[in-house]
Amino acid sequence: MDSQSIRDLESEKKIWSGQCRVSRMWVGVNVHTNKVLHLDLILMDSKGNDIWVQIPPVLIEKFKTMLKENHVYIIKNFDINTTGLKYRPIGNPYLIQFSRKTTVHHVPEVPAIPTFKFSFLNASQMAGKLGHVEILSDVVGQLRTHSDAITTTSLTRKTMRKELTLQLIEGDVVKVVIWGRVIEQFDKIIDAHGDDQNILVISAVSVGDFKDELSFSSSGSTVVYRNLDIPAVKAFATGYRVQLEVQSDLKSAVFVLFEYEGKRYFGLSGHELFLKNGQNGDLPPDELLQLVGVTKRFHVKFKINLFADSQADFTVLRILEPTSKGEGYMIHKDGSSSSIASGPACSQPSSDHSGQSGIGKSIETPVDSDGTPDNKLKRKMPLE
């Protein structure tokens, strides 16, 4: 029988033959009790169509030894239903359920079937997903910080909880709260690789709101991956960047544009600008010269280091048209700070450091959008 597409599957159709890759595989558990509910798979065909699979507890041992993530199989004799569940990890409304009659045949010659498929959210899309949990989302970012696991207690149960912060490719830093068995997945990654160079994909997360702060939260379907061989992860490994020296009131700072923002503003990647610079002799590319002598607003992120006399480096998140109003600092819980700098009014971090490692300092005079001090924004910022 010719291989069929996952799109051919319908709830009343029981006979189907197609080659599918096991794109994801995890044990579905209750996030509060850690009770095993089912073995879960995401199957994907050669056209990138995917479907969620659940294997009941009584059949887990049988099929867990037969199936491996990223391998390809022909699977027959199963039930198909609409999910009818509050949460689902992907958009497909259908769910495959294995039975005792289900057969699985491994395909040794792997056809051209994609390995992974995710639906990544960026920070600006989080608000739109708040309260919409019927289809879970995925997030990819560089691990910045992680807390110790703590136990949260309710009237009926205790649950382990850990907070991570990820820096997204756009430069935004977001919080991800992981629970229960997902903490075990994460800890295994840290134990094996340490804290350096961890680009994480965290699948099947929801968006929550705690004290007016949006964050991601793991689910019973969440899997944590490290440094996957996919474009979204490779984007973090670029070796090219653009550095701009910006002057304000006789002080200067280096503004760094990484690949994403540089390409969005100039239309060329850092690598393309590098090659073009080599063709122009001693002159920088025209794309860079257009910024020289021009007043712009820079949405930047900075860290305060220990050396008061060193030149500050800022990571550029956006380049905007100038306005007459000054913008202020936005200081995040992880200690990083976002700022809007408008041309000559470019904000600089204070140089009043204590000089002691581990001692925080305050930014005393952040400004509101009208240029007046806003003391509500004061927080301690840890020194790096």
Automatic annotation (TrEMBL):
The cross-references to InterPro entries, in alphabetical order and at most eight, read: NA-bd_OB-fold (IPR012340), RFA1B/D_OB_1st (IPR003871)
Instruction: State the protein's name.
Output: Replication protein A 70 kDa DNA-binding subunit B/D first OB fold domain-containing protein
Outline the segment boundaries, as ranges, of region: Disordered. Answer: 331-384
Please indicate which superkingdom the organism of origin belongs to.
Eukaryota
Domain named Replication protein A 70 kDa DNA-binding subunit B/D first OB fold is located at: 4-106
The annotated regions of Low complexity compositional bias extend over: 336-347
Name the Pfam families on file.
Answer: DUF223
Specify residue ranges for compositional bias: Basic and acidic residues: 373-384
| CDD domains with a match to the protein in the record | RPA1_DBD_A_like
Q: Which Gene3D superfamilies match?
A: Nucleic acid-binding proteins (2.40.50.140)
